[in-house]
Backbone:
């Protein structure tokens, strides 16, 4: 990952435009004609970001959900998407999942490009949204004294992937489709993001693992985030709490808000922002940094 | 290509939003606030859209130019781009070419995503522009009686690719860098597009070959385009005129304009729009359709 991180850093230097917050997970914010646009692009490669042989309808769903989750973290409502599509094993199934996801998020397909390729499939989606609250929440606004909150449990996607990888024979009561749903069909929290946007000091979606993403928020904000691990809602058995805090793809929203914050939706307080310490995180009073195995880099 | 065309048709049906003109080569047009946004996304795969082993700086340049050319055909000025980048053989070279191209077009990098992949490199770029003239030119506005025009010669990219494929030993007086430049470093005609936009009835860029793209304009507009082949400026020897008219990647602008049109920039009249006939094209009075080998489908 060193090469990639160096490349991203170089891109960030190139992206000196004030709107260019949008490299790897964060969104670009662009003022146009009295409106504030929020733009994001996510790419996914077969065998890296999704399983070879996975249902293309689920792949389409996740591609849309990933981008919609970026908009959700900005409190934005989708205006539409552009698709970069490499023809794959079952384009009709992909299209079915795409249509279902776009209908779910009320996000029209505005355009895109289809290509033939010679290797594993690579997909890209650009989502364009309209900010519903200004200033647009960023991951950089947390202040010491703010509470740290999350919208719901983490670890569900991890269990879903395990079910998918184990196959139908391993499932107990539930069908494979049900037990793997959290991995196959993550849901972006657009409504929650819009509702929370006016109240938060910082917000981002948890795509790469709660601890890793919290460390990023801490770094961007110049604070340390103190987390009480047992206060984090998890979808797994208690014995797997540590994994659940490090696994990603649940697309919950992580945010900070001032002490006076009264939750307008059901959310969970998991800690607080404190003055910056050596490490970006303090988990159960133990300092943790990026070198301490915070999560999985899903690039 | 049948699969791909069927997929594109299915996507078009899905893209029922009024803004969704933007599938494969054309741009999406979106009204936001008091502005009209023009959005396009192009994807390129190694071994399909560029040569494996080609200088990554040239690949970056072409990726940007292709998208800028889509904006040019709409008379739009760039607001920025989002990059979907799969790490490749020389990311620093890619970055150098990207920076050069973005500076050339004054198009800031707003965001994007970098990923690792397991096969040939696949790249995507989304460009966002602001329309400078409304209504935004489309490929569908040609009317019988309009003149058909092109901004400059075709066939230069073909010669450039041949030089690149032949290698340094085959070049005569010019260096390989010079003789291959038209293929490696195409230039999008943004200024020309903005100047022409208020005058044209239809406009598009020539990316897949003059005849093939003209046939698309004819189909979209419901006219037949009559072309006098010898009036088309070419960059090749006369013996290769037929190839030059069928090769793409020169990124000239093809447009129609009413009979009263007075060119504000240097352009070449190559024919006219007439009432629709059986075939979309009439080349030197010979009817030609898509089945007649009009060009190369660079998908």
Residues:
């Amino acid at each position: 990952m060193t090469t990639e991180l160096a490349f991203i850093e170089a891109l960030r230097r190139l992206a000196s435009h004030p709107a260019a917050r949008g490299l790897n997970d964060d969104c670009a914010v662009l003022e146009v004609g009295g409106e504030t646009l929020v733009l994001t692009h996510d790419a996914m490669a077969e065998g890296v970001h999704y399983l070879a042989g996975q249902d293309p309808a689920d792949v389409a769903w996740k591609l849309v959900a990933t981008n919609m989750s970026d908009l959700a973290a900005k409190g934005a409502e989708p205006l539409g998407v552009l698709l970069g599509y490499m023809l794959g094993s079952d384009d009709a199934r992909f299209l079915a999942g795409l249509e279902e996801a776009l209908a779910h998020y009320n996000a029209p397909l505005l355009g895109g490009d289809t290509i033939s390729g010679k290797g594993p499939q690579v997909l890209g989606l650009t989502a364009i949204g309209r900010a519903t609250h200004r200033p647009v929440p960023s991951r950089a606004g947390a202040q010491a004294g703010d509470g740290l909150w999350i919208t719901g449990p983490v670890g569900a996607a991890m269990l879903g992937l395990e079910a998918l990888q184990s196959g139908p024979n391993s499932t107990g009561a539930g069908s494979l489709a049900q037990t793997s749903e959290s991995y196959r069909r993550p849901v972006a929290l657009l409504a929650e993001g819009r509702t929370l946007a006016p109240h938060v000091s910082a917000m981002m979606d948890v795509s790469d693992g709660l601890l890793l993403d919290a460390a990023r928020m801490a770094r961007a904000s110049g604070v340390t985030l103190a987390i009480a691990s047992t206060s984090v809602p998890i979808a797994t058995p208690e014995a797997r709490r540590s994994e659940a805090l490090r696994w990603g793809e649940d697309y919950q929203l992580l945010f900070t808000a001032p002490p006076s914050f009264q939750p307008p939706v059901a959310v969970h307080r998991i800690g607080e922002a404190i003055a910056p310490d050596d490490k970006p995180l303090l988990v159960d009073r133990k300092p943790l940094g990026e070198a301490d195995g915070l999560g999985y880099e899903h690039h």
Observations:
- The mean pLDDT of chain A is 90.
- Residues 217 and 275 of chain A are 14 Å apart (CA to CA).
- The longest strand of chain A covers residues 35-45.
